[in-house]
Amino acid sequence: MRIALITPREEGLSAFRAGLEGRNARIECYRDDIDFLQTARSRTWDLVIVDGLYTPFHGILERLLEINASLNTAVITNLSAEAFHEAGEGLGILAALPAKPAAADVDPLLARLRAIGGLDPAVEEAQARLDAARFRHHPHCVVCWDRHPFGLQVDYRVTGVHRVEGAFGCGKSYEGYEGLVHGGVVSSLLDGAMASCMLAMGLEAYTAEMRVRFRGPVRTGRPAVLKGEWVRGEGPLHLLTATLEQEGKVRATARAKFYQVRLDADPAPLPRGGGMRYLLSQARKRLV
């Protein structure tokens, strides 16, 4: 699971953070809401925790909920229960945390998140596999490494056992024709979504074949949503699909076959030989 922690006192919450990380949570800290909104607003979060001891939390949460009305939030506070209820009225806050939250506060918080459907154990496991595989196999990926100076920085998140979703801001620096995102960038985004599906399932694979259809213009300056889905597998080949949506409309789709391998081995082309060629050709036919 991915959790954002908005606080200027990152070190003072080390025990609480360690408790969350011990439950397979990936924590990212931001000094304030401006820092968060500038760098992480387009990412998908399971929970955002706001440290209300250092800034009025009501205004911050209002701004966050304007962007994502379904965002799950918790607040660190020293207010009494009555005062907190009054200050947070209408904001749908999941939980109030003590002024010095500790590891013991983690399980009750996650239990509340699961109770409202904010966490699915199967999805949590798949996300943990994806995060571990990204770090192990392509930590500097031009598509999904969030610190790549020239990369796309897409944070693909597991939304189902066989599905992932990500967001892309479509910045001007990725332009091809005037006002349009370059088609190669679009293709990379779709490929990244499908590759993330494979890794989330615990399957290591290379793209063997991909067909992209551009259904409409992908405009710069307007955020896009990427969705990838594993469809089925035949032997070492797997069929996956992906879409890019912008302003509620599908702008591009992809259909690809991935070849399952061990990614810690040297990259190699598809195996050759009469018997292998026959097996792969039959698998391709079944995946059409």
From TrEMBL:
<keyword id="KW-0963">Cytoplasm</keyword>
<dbReference type="InterPro" id="IPR006683">
    <property type="entry name" value="Thioestr_dom"/>
</dbReference>
<feature type="domain" description="Thioesterase">
    <location>
        <begin position="179"/>
        <end position="232"/>
    </location>
</feature>
<keyword id="KW-0472">Membrane</keyword>
<dbReference type="InterPro" id="IPR052365">
    <property type="entry name" value="THEM4/THEM5_acyl-CoA_thioest"/>
</dbReference>
<keyword id="KW-0443">Lipid metabolism</keyword>
<protein>
    <recommendedName>
        <fullName>Acyl-coenzyme A thioesterase THEM4</fullName>
        <ecNumber>3.1.2.2</ecNumber>
    </recommendedName>
</protein>
<dbReference type="GO" id="GO:0005737">
    <property type="term" value="C:cytoplasm"/>
</dbReference>
<keyword id="KW-0276">Fatty acid metabolism</keyword>
<keyword id="KW-0053">Apoptosis</keyword>
<keyword id="KW-0378">Hydrolase</keyword>
<keyword id="KW-0966">Cell projection</keyword>
<dbReference type="GO" id="GO:0016790">
    <property type="term" value="F:thiolester hydrolase activity"/>
</dbReference>
<dbReference type="Pfam" id="PF03061">
    <property type="entry name" value="4HBT"/>
</dbReference>
<dbReference type="InterPro" id="IPR029069">
    <property type="entry name" value="HotDog_dom_sf"/>
</dbReference>
<keyword id="KW-0809">Transit peptide</keyword>
<comment type="similarity">
    <text>Belongs to the THEM4/THEM5 thioesterase family.</text>
</comment>
<dbReference type="GO" id="GO:0016020">
    <property type="term" value="C:membrane"/>
</dbReference>
<dbReference type="GO" id="GO:0006631">
    <property type="term" value="P:fatty acid metabolic process"/>
</dbReference>
<keyword id="KW-1003">Cell membrane</keyword>
